[in-house]
Amino acid sequence: MKMTKREYQMMSKKASPPSPVLRDCVKAFLVGGLICAVGQVIVSLAVQNGLTMKEARTLCCIALIGASVLLTALDLYDAIAKHAGAGMLVPITGFANAVSSPAIEFKSEGFVLGLGAKMFTIAGPVIVYGTVASVVYGVIYWITTLF
């Protein structure tokens, strides 16, 4: 018996629970905003304590990456992300989680074949593309400054 598209859509709608889109958007906004606010507090405190703006921003990046990796290692990142949704994907924390979670998962295979190889499973293409693009840009810039 072949099912029509309409029958499939009705069956799918009946089987799928309704998604609370507005609630999910509010949660994502609040969690993402909280992460950004924490970052701004770190930057402001660092500047007040004598760091330059560039140094303060670097410290903020290091702190947010460290917190994300720690939460991933303690298996808390996914639990928070389950409720926060896209709010946990604020670029620096989401990327740190994407790099660290495969590495942590495969650490039992050893440092080279487990940790080293699996660390870039998800984020690897992004890192490779960014590195290659920056090298190409640098070569083009260097060539144009020769003349």
Quick structural summary:
This protein has 147 residues and is an all-alpha fold. It has seven helices and no strands. The mean pLDDT is 84.
Query: Mean of the pLDDT scores?
Result: 84
Please write the string of helix (H) and strand (E) elements: HHHHHHH
Strand residues, percent:
under 5%
- Measured between the Cα atoms of the first and last residue, the distance is 73 Å
Helix content: over 70%
Rounded radius of gyration (Å): 22 Å
Q: Which structural class matches the secondary elements? A: mainly alpha
Shape: extended
Counted by DSSP, the helix tally is 7
Major β-sheet profile: none
* Extended strand count: 0
Unreliable stretches (pLDDT < 50, length at least 5) are none
Describe this structure in words.
With 147 residues, the protein is an all-alpha fold. It is built from seven helices and no strands. The chain has helices spanning 5-15, 21-48, 53-73, 77-84, 91-105, 111-118, 124-146. The longest helix is centred in the N-terminal third of the chain and has 28 residues, at 21-48.
Main attributes of the structure:
single chain, 147 residues, mainly alpha, 7 helices, 78% helix, extended
Secondary-structure topology with pairs:
Elements lengths: L4 H11 L5 H28 L4 H21 L3 H8 L6 H15 L5 H8 L5 H23 L1
